[in-house]
Amino acid sequence: MGNLPLSTGLFKADATMSEQVSGGRFIARRIRNGVTYYYTPFPEAEDQTLCPAKYSQTSLSPSALPLSDSSSADPSSSPLLSDSPSHTPASSGDSGPTSRPLLLFFSWLGAQPGAVAKYMDLYLDRGMDVLLVQSSVMHFLWPRWGLEYGLEVLKILEEPQFSGRPLLVHASSIGGYTFTQLLIHIAQGPEKYAGLSQQVIGHIYDSLVAGTLEHMAIGLGRTLVPHFEGFVRKAAMFYFWLFKTHTADYYNNGIQVFHNNPITAPALFFFSENDALCNPVVVEQLIDLWRKRGMAVESRKWKESKHAAHMRCHPQDYLSTLEKFLRSLPISSLKAKM
Fold first, then answer.
1. Out of 90, 132, 152, 285, which could bridge 27 as a Cys pair, Cβ 3.0 to 4.6 Å?
2. How many angstroms separate the CA atoms of 44 and 229, rounded?
3. Whole-model pTM?
4. In a domain, 12, yes or no
């Protein structure tokens, strides 16, 4: 089947809404199901409804960084996105044009609001806005829908409030797969998306699933129904075989696009040797391939860690590696915030 350096953590669309973002006041605006924009308002927008921070970031010990692989609570319960008068989402005109860097955060399975907030804090505190992109399990199981979703995200990035802004990509678990759906469109339309490709100043891959279809099937079992992991794995393998032209063939195409990534900005990989969803040899081969293509690639590998929980397991190491990478990027506003 070939190597599959694609992310496959799976969760329901719109399952993650961050309620705990430190560093001051911000606005949360839902662009569409699965896509939410978090940004700091302009001075002239003082009269807009704002969402105050709900906690101050404390020391990043493992216990302070919660991680859950289970489904999140209903997003409709999130006060950030409530329809009540005190928490009315901002309209599309509130954000206005800005040159502030934008983080595209492709989240992982069942990410709890507090866990996602820890990552968003890292970037909001550095003067970046955040576009949170989530995926549905069906975007993976039926790749055509994933491609359609990827095209919708690209159209969002072409809107005035996002167009031309420096972009940083951070993809975790299924986020790597979702981002690949964007890359497929970019590779198919290099002239159309030339400007967008140049906007990306860096991309970060955290717990990228890499290996064979077996790794994908394992990911499905462990994330959808952990107690029946073996059954789901076997069912998934049968499904991939039965609908090969609609699944495996699409995955193979995505693999080739990812290997020949049209985004050549500096990249950073976080992975571990004991991750059942990731073959470290495959990741290292990918890193070598990109370096041979002339890309600047950094990585941090741990002997033992947890899938999509490296920051929780190794907070000091994770943050220092991320800080070093961000400092290397050509954005003065990021460096000034550190």
1. 90
2. 53
3. 0.76
4. no
